[in-house]
Amino acid sequence: MTTRLSAPRTGSDAPAGAGPLRPGTSAPAARHTPAAPAPAVDSEDRTRDRVLNAVLEHGPVSAAELGDLLGFTPAAVRRHLDHLSRSGVIEVKRVAKAGAGAGRPARRYVLSSQGQSILGDDYLGIAGLALQRLGEIAGPEAVRDFAVERFTDMERRYAPEIDAAGPDITARAQALSAALSRDGFVASAASIEAKAPLPAALSSVQLCQGHCPIQQLATKFPVFCDVETEVFSRLVGVDVRRLSTLARGGHVCTTHIPTGRPAAKGPDGPGHTTDSLGEVSNHLQERP
Which of 2, 40, 164, 190 lies at a C-alpha separation of 20 to 30 Å from 219? Predict the structure, then answer.
């Protein structure tokens, strides 16, 4: 009688620590190891990305407001905010609430400069070097001409949409905000009505941009902010002023748009401004 030998089992077929089977012996019963639970890292990262995007879109925003927006518990929100703060992509701003008197400013979260850079374009560094070289060879006017050319396309695309909003300055500002958000600037437009005894002429819209795709370029070349501001003025039809910019360390780009004044008139129609960009800079202006 010939005894047949079974081939030794290896890898996933052989029990851990088992050697070749001896003649006449049977294989031990397979041991079933419970499957390891799926890692929660991906879920945590996705949740943290939601928190980061909410800070980008709604900042400056409090932890409680984020919890309401996202449906998270205060503990969960703060855990993610602490992680993002340690990573350097968000930071805390102390913001005084309107009408709150002299109380302690509230903690609000905004994207940091590092966070803005992470969301920016990887090619901005190369573009910055190219513009620097252009300025060295052809002078600063060449950089200005480049900025004007870039924003000419924005003005051409936005103009029909904003004109469709009619002559009301507030409606035009809201249309501009919608167009900017569609292009990734995360914009919002808040109406500020002047109440007695303040004159109605002081009413305005605060146009905010939470993200700037060319922030690194604008930091080195403020003319980009100047040209953009001039485009906004022509589009909405009144003289506007920049109050803050991301390029200069602000947590948002804020543009003051007066709504209680008559629309500007000039040779190029509503919104035309005669100030030369080389003479007047709207970059980080004070409130008029």
Answer: 190
Cα–Cα distance measured from residue 148 to residue 224, given in angstroms and rounded to the nearest whole number: 8
Backbone angles phi, psi at 242, to 5 degrees: -85, 125
Amino acid at 288: P
CB-based contacts of 254, cutoff 8 Å, min separation 6? 206, 207, 208, 242, 243, 244, 245
The structure's pTM equals 0.55
| Closest C-alpha to 243, from 288, 285, 206 | 285
Both tokens of 94, joined, read 């102390």
Per-residue pLDDT of the chain (288 residues; tens, 9 = 90+): 444 333 444 444 444 444 454 555 555 555 555 555 545 555 777 888 888 888 877 777 888 888 888 888 888 888 888 888 888 888 887 755 544 455 566 778 887 766 766 655 545 566 667 777 878 888 888 888 988 988 999 999 999 999 999 999 999 999 999 999 888 788 899 998 878 787 777 889 999 998 887 887 888 889 999 999 999 999 999 999 999 998 888 888 999 999 976 665 544 444 443 333 333 344 444 333
3-state secondary structure of 241: strand
At CB < 8 A and 24+ separation, what contacts does 175-180 make?
A: 176/207, 176/232, 176/235, 176/236, 177/207, 180/209
Are 186 and 56 spatial neighbours (Cβ–Cβ below 8 Å)? yes
d(CA 249, CA 261): 30
Query: Domains, the chain, ranges and CATH?
Result: 43-95+105-118 (1.10.10.10), 124-258 (3.30.1380)
Residue found under tokens 């002299």:
102
**What is d(CA 267, CA 244) in angstroms, rounded to the nearest whole number?**
29
- List, in order, residues 6 or more apart from 46 with CB less than 8 Å away: none
Phi, psi of 205 (to 5 degrees): -120, 130
